[in-house]
Amino acid sequence: MTPSIKNLNYLLALKQYLHFSKAAKACFVSQSTLSAGINKLEQDLNIKLVERDSKSVLFTPLGKKVVKYSEKVIFSMQDLVAVANLNFFESTITIGVIPTISAYLLPKFVSKIKEKYPKLKIVVIEDASQNLLLKVEQLKLDFAIFAFPFEEKTNIIQVTIFKDDLVLVKHKNTQNNDLLLLEQRHCLRSHILDNSNIDKTKVSQYACASLETLVTMVNMEIGVSFLPKIAIDSGILDKYPALVVDKKQKKLSRHIGIIYRKNNPNQENILALSLFLQSNSKDIYQDV
Predict the structure, then answer these.
(1) CATH code for the structural domain at 163-254
(2) Which DSSP category does 173 fall into?
(3) What is the pTM of this model?
(4) Could you tell me what percent of the chain has a pLDDT over 90?
């Protein structure tokens, strides 16, 4: 019997999370429903896909091959749906954005897009860069607003919109120069640490989940930190009059832009939208 698309999606989720409960949650179904779907898939194909016990999930060699073919099938189905959507700029698109951009830049990005394409509806998903990258590869997102550089992949296209400076912020009375950073999952951390001017021996053991927490800790004189200029221009320091920008410290920088999957069926439209934003980058950046 031909496997269902639904059960193939369950299989891909299980491969991603290697955990039935987490995979079921990602698919918005119960664990028993997902498990039944995997069992049905094994019956349809007449092979064993996974070995499971109470603690782990292990894919069989055949199971790993089926996963690769399942990805191709799902991508092809997504391509088919996208192609059927004849007018991209009158459709609903789903975009991703990383947390160190969303609150400070997203309103202006979306406003500028809606100004040009008023019939385009936009659904936004905020997530860490690695998670968004995976969703872009799987065509679960039309594109993502990203910070560069990142580990480039041959199947991902990136279009730079503008440069965002990273400036050192500290408490005006502090004697503590430990460098406070975000958690490992945030690309801003690597953008700072990859710079040759950074003394890595000064990196604090503290790791923050958000820029807002980072600013609070700087205000408590626990250390200093580099913040994106778009966050400062948006007023992230306004409630903290004792915090100052160290103008003697050399600025770091990152680039903000859009990523999308190569051979995305809507890539011409996404590129056109990207170039439109690029041509209006001064409005987007200066008005933040």
Answers:
(1) 3.40.190.10
(2) T
(3) 0.68
(4) 51
